[in-house]
Specification:
four-stranded mixed sheet; binds copper (II) ion; alpha+beta
Length: 144
Amino acid sequence: MKMMQRLIVLLGLLPLAALANTHTVEMLNRNDTGPMPFAPDYLIVQPGDTVKFLATAPGHNAATIDGMIPEGGEAFVGNINEEIEVTLNAEGIWGIKCSPHYTMGMVMLIQVGDTTATEEDLPDNLPAPARQRFVEILSRQANN
Ligand SMILES: [Cu+2]
């Protein structure tokens, strides 16, 4: 009985951080969404969760897009051909690109928290293929 009480007390003391999740995103050359995709290309996480970008196919990286980082968030740039793991605390919509394939539209969105992304979140100066990919992602999300 005493043991059981201890266990219950211990469970109650588990820090919240232990509940943070890790999500994986693959960097690919092609899938059914088209060429040069992140998979998934729309990810919903909670503040404090970790996102791990896997260098599944060669030649890619993951980096934040200027103007698409929520307030309080920090920019990051991964190395090409390398896995990168980031913990996202700032709530809002994060725009992610692959640096070498940004102008080909290799982008994705990460929603941290409850606010869903809309076209309002897209800055004006995006390369056209990146904007087009974002619009596709958003319309797919809206239809889910
Ligand atoms: Cu790429």
